[in-house]
Amino acid sequence: MAGLERLHAALSNGHGDTRLSWTNRIVIGLIIAASLTAVLETEPVIREAVPTGLFIGLEAFFVIAFSVEYLLRLAAVGVEPRYAGITGRLRYMVSFWAIVDLLAILPSLLLLGGQESFLLRLARLLRLLRIARLGRFTAALNDLVEALRGRRYELLISVAAAGFLLLVSASVLYVLEAEAQPESFGSIPRALWWSVATLTTVGYGDVYPITPLGRIFAGITAIAGIGLIAMPAGIIAAALSDLVQRRRDG
Predict the structure, then answer these.
(1) What is d(CA 160, CA 166) in angstroms, rounded to the nearest whole number?
(2) Is the confidence at residue 138, as pLDDT, over 90?
(3) Residue 151 and residue 143: Cα distance in Å, rounded?
(4) For the chain, is the Cβ count within 10 Å smaller at the N or the C terminus?
(5) How far apart (Å, rounded) are the C-alpha atoms in residues 122 and 62?
(6) Is the per-residue pLDDT at 133 higher than 70?
(7) What is d(CA 129, CA 149) in angstroms, rounded to the nearest whole number?
(8) What pLDDT digit, counting tens, does each position of 218-241 carry?
């Protein structure tokens, strides 16, 4: 039992340690390396340049490593009273983070292929959130959640204002541009694509107004989009600043 307790402490940063254990640091490195490998594997030029079977070998290594880690976590979690025994471990296996751990190895174990397999393999990045809940990352995440909760009404108002502005801009461009460009602005849902691209200041340029009134309104909408993006960012920054100041004063 003492061995399981030490293993559990290493995997979960037990004993109140604010630093990530070496075990979790290694897991983070494996997660990043596995995700980067999955991304690079989608590029045909890279696949042709590397030795045959390299990506298959790397994926096999990651699957073995994550499988061993999963089994170790399953064994070590039994030291917690709620997960003790076979029933407790079965309860752990259907918990959210245990399912996320299983997704790290499931695609390869089931010999899945294609884009669906890639998305499941990339889901390994979710496991970084699990580890981020440990050590010093916990305080930072709690601060962010507390700041968002404290300004939730202001954020809701900014989201509502954004939705209203999107609908109004799409409706106006529909009226001004529908006759000139029916394919792009022939309906409000079609015009919404232009509104989203403009108000978020992305501006893809694939759809744009060509009538004089449409261009004038598009300029006004683009300027309004700057404030639309800045509003929630300013609210969150102010909330975090207030939180830090209160802790210093307290």
Answers:
(1) 10
(2) no
(3) 12
(4) C
(5) 13
(6) no
(7) 19
(8) 899 888 888 877 888 888 888 888
